[in-house]
Write a structure and sequence with these properties.
Number of helices: 3
Largest sheet: none
Oligomer: single chain
Order of helices and strands: HHH
Length: 113
């Protein structure tokens, strides 16, 4: 099967009447304005499809970047909340330690009496 003009020229050297007839028929069809217009439209459709695919891919990428950014912000907020809670727990532990020390002092005072 010929894929290029060079391939067609090589086939012509075979001097096969059926192949010559097929090549002439092909050349007549491809020379028509209708064929040229169909080929132009096919190439344009292919370019439009590629452009649409690139646009859709870019749009999807931007969408997912937004989703990721939102999730990262949510994670940062939760991490800040956890850090605040850990600080509050540390403060409560310190307060408990102070109360235990005060109780120990009171017990020592009572024991001395």
């Amino acid at each position: 099967m010929a894929k290029t003009e060079k391939d067609l020229e090589q086939i012509k050297t075979w001097r096969d009447p059926i192949m010559d007839q097929a090549i002439k028929a092909y050349q007549q069809v491809t020379a028509t304005d209708e064929f040229k217009e169909l080929e132009r439209l096919r190439l344009r459709a292919r370019a439009n499809e590629a452009s649409a695919l690139r646009h859709a891919t870019e749009k999807e990428r931007v969408k997912w970047q937004g989703v990721v950014a939102d999730k990262e912000a949510t994670i940062a907020d939760k991490e800040a909340t956890i850090a605040d809670q850990k600080a509050a727990i540390a403060d409560q532990k310190a307060a408990i330690a102070d109360q235990k020390a005060a109780i120990a002092d009171q017990k020592a005072t009572i024991a001395r009496l």
